[in-house]
Design a protein that fits this description.
The structure holds three protein chains of three kinds.
Chain A lengths: L1 H20 L5 H11 L18 E5 L29 H12 L7 E5 L15 E2 L7 H4 L2 E10 L1 E6 L10 H4 L4 E4 L3 H10 L6 E3 L2 H9 L5 E5 H11 L3 E6 L7 E8 L5 H13 L2 H10 L10
Parallel strand pairs in A: 1-2, 1-3, 6-7, 6-8
Antiparallel strand pairs in A: 4-10, 5-8, 5-9
Helix pairs in contact in A: 3-9, 3-10
Chain B lengths: L1 H16 L9 H24 L4 H8 L2 H41 L6 H16 L2 H14 L9 H27 L2 H9 L4 H16 L1 H14 L11 H12 L3 H31 L2
Helix pairs in contact in B: 4-5, 4-7, 4-10, 4-11, 4-12, 5-7, 6-7, 7-9, 7-10, 8-9, 10-12, 11-12
Chain C lengths: L3 E10 L2 E11 L4 E5 L6 H8 L7 E6 L2 E2 L7 H7 E4 L11 H11 L5 H14 L15 H13 L5 E5 L7 H16 L3 E5 L3 H7 L2 E6 L2 E6 L1 H6 L4 H12 L4
Parallel strand pairs in C: 3-8, 3-9, 6-7, 7-8
Antiparallel strand pairs in C: 1-2, 1-4, 4-5, 9-10
Helix pairs in contact in C: 3-4, 3-5, 5-6
Classes of the chains: A alpha/beta, B mainly alpha, C alpha/beta.
Chain lengths: 300, 284, 247
């Protein structure tokens, strides 16, 4: 009995000691506040706190779909469809343009695979920034840092040729259709918040699944961003057609680069993106990769 | 000497009273030790977690009360779909699995094809991961475009769950049937009951009673697998929480879903315990 | 026409021959007791009669019908023959009434009411009426065995086979079961009884059959067998029984 009591007391003592030794709340933010308090952070390349010293690590999902990434992937590469390292495609080009503005040469850029829902999990990130057609939303900004926007995006509707939905001319024509979209996308939010169809939308893990459902005629139409809609109808669903694009819901939806919350790099990335916008580089890149993917009737 | 023995007997009675919590030893003191050690144990864990470096961020990402409150109603609403799915599936599973188990037990060379069919079925559907069955049937079957074949993903989702779980539950039934002593069947057959009659009235009632715990266990597993139907479109609780998570980049909605599933599981688990205990008492 | 005839019945399990050519006849209303050492084949013989075990060779005829012929409906045959085992084998998930009425209802297609009436009459007669709603696990061994006998009787068999029905019972419970059997004999039931209870066998049997290593070594009226057995092995067996105090 006495031995048991002693053991209990010992455990309690250990507990108190452990409590005392733990870090306190402010530690995580310590490093950043130190940097901020020295006034303007420097964006000199050798002063940047990248995950890998001297290199810029960029994340995107796999497969990297056209027209966001192009150029194919070499045999045996972990990348399917396209290898972002080629710097081709709209987002491929933008990523390297930002890297260059920040002072990184092409061979100082490394790519990592980051599935969409890994980009915002708590804890240290495996990337410096992530580029993956992620729309800037205030709720999301509570948990990650967004860069300045680099693309204005519109949602579009794809249906099978010859279906009744293919003839839709306005949002009202779409309201009774069974729509589908990928989980986590602003496409899905657009359906739920703006279109508000009479039947609840079907939700899928990947774009491929959405397309399978369309082909199986389990859904009438899918909502994706306009450039992706071109790829879908050109390659994935040849008998699909772009019914039209949707007008903006309130504010224009925009893509932004994703960084860790309170990342020390956010300011410098912002400077880079803004510079690219100001000197017309973003427009050029858009012209090069997305010019023929911008025209579709607007469904009001 | 006699007095010592008497005292020991007294302690014995006390320890039986506290047996429910299995504290062992001597009544009041053991309760006190149990309480203190529990407090210390969990207190230590809490202290360790709350004082870790990453805690504030994890707390924000997983335990945000505002987001919990905001997302809970929609998730609870979607949970009704899960309930529909597993309730309907379970009924079919219990029946189909029994059929397969009975097929498996048919004796004699003339029934070999049926026995073989049952074996192939259980091997196949315990072998293929459930997620694949959902995908293959959910997208594949409607894509065949055979007239009359339903396209509804909910239908194929339930069918997939039934096909897979029937294979597992059939094995549970089989174990139950095997556990009934052959003398029971011998007694029934001796009275002139046919094979089917003795199976139906003597063997199966005993077999099923014995396997209620593993049956309920599989049912609890099925409840979680109802979320797989989301892969082919329908928005059930897990998917709904995924939508919420993606909207806010905060994981708290997952907690809400987890809570709903746990709240469902606990009564079932206690019910299973009660059934086991009642059965044990009956067999005294 | 005898109630039961066995002609040259052989039965093996794996390579071991347990019954090596049994010839036996039991007349209507006759009570025949089978005695012999364990492993001599008594149980196997009984189980062959109601086709729980298929015979390898030989013929079995019950009430003129050949059971070993091709195309026989086993279930119909078994309804005419009652068998009670050493281990009672009551159905634990049913009450006493349920146990007794199950086969009459399902196999004989009696209505629930008719089956119950028949069951209650039998239970009444053998002093078990007050146990009708009890479950087997609440009954003593002797009560369970008596229920097992009633359960077999409820099918109104032409012939009763009793396989060491008292061997699993505590000594003080044996008497009640033997009482039931005695009463059945008094009512004229044709019975083939395998038993270790020599005193009982002596008392109740019309004929005693001594089985030794799969053959009928000797048979005759109880007085003859118990007081002056002819075969030396019979004598040896009985000697051992007497030494064990069971006769």
């Amino acid at each position: 009995m006495r031995r048991a009591l002693l053991l209990v007391l010992l455990l309690m003592a250990l507990g108190v000691a452990a409590a005392g030794c733990g870090g306190d709340d402010g530690d995580a933010a310590g490093a950043t506040t130190a940097a901020e308090s020295t006034g303007e952070a420097s964006c000199e390349k050798d002063q940047l706190e990248t995950t890998s010293a001297g290199k810029l690590t960029i994340g995107t999902d796999n497969p990297a779909f056209p027209p966001w990434f192009e150029g194919g992937a070499p045999k045996g590469s972990k990348w399917e469809i396209n290898d972002p390292g080629k710097g081709q495609g709209f987002e491929g080009a933008v990523a390297y343009a930002v890297a260059e503005k920040m002072g990184f040469a092409r061979n100082e850029v490394e790519w990592v695979v980051v599935p969409f829902d890994q980009s915002f999990k708590p804890g240290p990130k495996s990337f410096d920034f992530d580029i993956n057609q992620i729309s800037i939303k205030p709720e999301r900004a509570n948990n990650v840092d967004f860069s300045e926007p680099y693309y204005d995006v519109n949602q579009a509707l794809v249906a099978l040729k010859g279906s009744s939905l293919a003839n839709a001319k306005s949002i009202a024509d779409v309201k009774d259709a069974k729509l589908g979209a990928q989980i986590g996308t602003t496409s899905l939010t657009y359906i739920d918040d703006e279109i508000q169809p009479s039947k609840k939308a079907s939700v899928y893990n990947t774009n491929n699944d959405v397309i399978s459902a369309l082909k199986a005629k389990q859904i009438d139409g899918i909502v994706v961003d306009l450039p992706t809609a071109f790829f879908v109808t050109a390659v994935q669903v040849p008998n699909g057609t772009i019914v039209g694009q949707f007008p903006d819901a309130g504010e224009q939806e925009q893509f932004g680069l994703v960084l860790a919350k309170d990342s020390p790099l956010t300011d410098c990335v912002d400077q880079a993106v803004t510079a690219l916008r100001d000197d017309g580089t973003l427009d050029e890149i858009q012209q090069e990769w997305l010019a023929d993917k911008a025209n579709a009737p607007v469904l009001e | 000497m006699a007095r010592r023995q008497g005292e020991r007997a007294g302690f014995g009675i006390n320890s039986r009273r506290s047996k429910i919590l299995d504290l062992g030893g001597e009544g009041g003191r053991s309760v006190a030790v149990a309480v203190v050690s529990t407090l210390v144990f969990f207190g230590l864990i809490v202290l360790l977690v709350v004082n870790s470096t990453g805690w504030p961020e994890v707390k924000r990402s997983f335990f945000d009360p505002d987001i919990f409150g905001a997302s809970f109603p929609d998730i609870a609403d979607a949970f009704l779909l899960n309930i529909r799915i597993f309730a309907i599936a379970e009924v079919f599973i219990l029946v189909a699995a029994l059929g397969i188990a009975v097929l498996r037990s048919l004796p004699g060379p003339v029934f070999f094809p049926l026995r073989a069919l049952a074996v192939v079925y259980t091997d196949l559907f315990r072998g293929i991961p459930t997620i694949l069955v959902v995908y293959i049937l959910g997208f594949g079957a409607p894509a065949l475009q055979i007239g009359g074949v339903p396209r509804d993903p909910l239908f194929w989702g339930v069918v997939s769950l039934v096909l897979v779980y029937s294979a597992y539950v059939a094995e549970v039934y089989r174990a139950g049937i095997d556990s009934v002593h052959p003398s029971q069947e011998a007694a029934a057959r001796s009275l002139g009951l046919t094979r089917m009659q003795s199976l139906r009235h003597v063997v199966l009632p005993q077999a099923v009673r014995r396997v209620v715990p593993p049956l309920l266990n599989d049912f609890i597993g099925l409840q979680k697998d109802s979320a797989l139907v989301a892969l082919i479109g329908p928005v059930e609780a897990f998917r709904q929480s995924q939508i919420e998570v993606a909207g806010s980049f905060n994981y708290t909605p997952y907690l809400a879903t987890a809570l709903l599933f746990v709240l469902l599981t606990i009564p079932l688990a206690r019910f299973t315990d009660w059934l086991i205990a009642r059965d044990r008492m009956r067999q005294r | 026409m005898s109630a039961l005839e066995l002609h040259d019945v052989h039965k093996s399990f794996a390579r071991v021959e347990v019954l090596k050519g049994i010839d036996l006849e039991v007349a209507d209303h006759e009570v025949v007791c089978l005695i012999g050492a364990s492993g001599s084949g008594k149980s196997t013989l009984l189980r062959c009669v109601n086709l729980l075990e298929p015979v390898d060779r030989g013929r079995i005829v019950v009430g003129g019908q050949e059971l070993t012929a091709r195309g026989i409906d086993v279930n119909v045959v078994r309804r005419r023959i009652g068998i009670v085992f050493q281990a009672y084998n009551l159905f634990p998930h049913m009450s006493v009434l349920g146990n007794v009425t199950l086969a009459p209802r399902k196999a004989l297609k009696l209505s629930r009411a008719d089956a119950a009436a028949r069951a209650l009459e039998l239970l009444e007669r053998f002093g078990l009426a007050d146990k009708r709603d009890e479950y087997p696990d609440r009954l003593s061994g002797g009560q369970q065995q008596r229920v097992a006998i009633v359960r077999a009787l409820a099918m109104r068999p032409e012939l009763m086979l009793l396989d060491e029905v008292t061997s699993a019972l505590d000594p003080e419970l044996i008497a009640e079961v033997l009482g039931v059997i005695r009463e059945l004999a008094g009512l004229g039931m044709t019975m083939l009884i395998a038993t270790h209870e020599m005193g009982f066998a002596r008392d109740i049997a019309d004929r005693v059959v001594f089985l030794d290593e799969g053959v009928i070594l000797e048979q005759g009226p109880p007085d003859e067998i118990f007081t002056s057995p002819r075969e030396p092995r019979t004598q040896q067996f009985l000697q051992r029984i007497i030494e064990a105090g069971r006769l």
